[in-house]
Task: structure prediction
Amino acid sequence: MTTDSRPDARKRILTGVRPTGSLHLGHYVGALENWIRLQREYECFFLIADFQVSDHADDISQVRGNVLEVATDWLAVGLDPEGSHFQIESLVPQHAELTTWLSWWVPLGMLQRNPTLKAEMGNLEGDSVPVAFFNYPMMQASNILMPKAHLVPVGEDQLPHIELTREIARRFNRIFKTDLFPEPEALLGRVARLVGVDGNAKMSKSLNNAIYLKDDADTVTKKVRGMFTDPTRLRATDPGHVEGNPVFMYHDAFNPNVEEVDDLKARYVTGTVGDVEVKQKLAIALNNFLDPIRERRAYYEAHPREVLDALAAGTAHANKVADETMRQVRDAMGLNYLA
Ligand code: ATP
Ligand code: MG
Result:
């Protein structure tokens, strides 16, 4: 019943990011790297989730600029808007429509038990949590199901949301005896969860512990100099710990010179290299990694029209896909009243 009359025969990817700021190294190794690698093999829908930033309700004026920041970062890392579709979530309002229908079959308890949601809720009082906060994983399920995506390349923090999406797809298909929605698979990045410069378990825009893809070389060097390292090591001659040390985790993730990294590790555990040298070498490696990204970013900053055009074209395409899916959803539910 899901004969798809679409011209592009590739399987689909849907993935995205919240417009809460610029993109950082965690996004790169956790997600973007896979997006770049897979963008030819899959038909990709890259989504900027502006319905999902209710934690920014008090500073909504930031959202517009953040949407453009994200799209500029995407172009800077080499995502190609010709072969894939950049979309702004709220300009494809069918997402809200699908969320409304799907929420019929999702008990609140399922969201309350979601570990990522619990962590993000942090110390918000239970009864002051906005309804939109519980809605956001539902919205994400709609994002993924709308183009019937097969694959969702994301960081580890998103796994509970993908599981929720699979459950919702199963329920819908079972209830309406259809195979409309495929159960999407998650794909984790090379580093499923990159730690923050402060040693916090996750580099995150909201935790203010990130090295941004657009940071200039001096900023990166300063951030690296101030990085959390082995807290048990007081002098450069003390034997240090490599395991669990953010500075070495970043070396492993971003320094292509494996010999240098192995040498630094060997000297670190024997107390024959100081944190200063380890950090200096990391700053150099990171700046080498970021240079081409910065260069492409400068081009798009000088050509903002190209950024808007990419968003407009992708959003228009996503609208068409969403119309077709919503028609099929209504057909399956027997609610295509006027057809
Ligand atoms: P916010 O704090 O505003 O939620 P964020 O930094 O968590 O921002 P998101 O927009 O929530 O960014 O996440 C976008 C994508 O990047 C998701 O797939 C997420 O799993 C991934 N991601 C974000 N931070 C990291 C990280 N530190 N390590 C690996 N992947 C990450
Ligand atoms: Mg997040």
In short: The two ends are 17 Å apart (CA to CA). The mean pLDDT is 95.
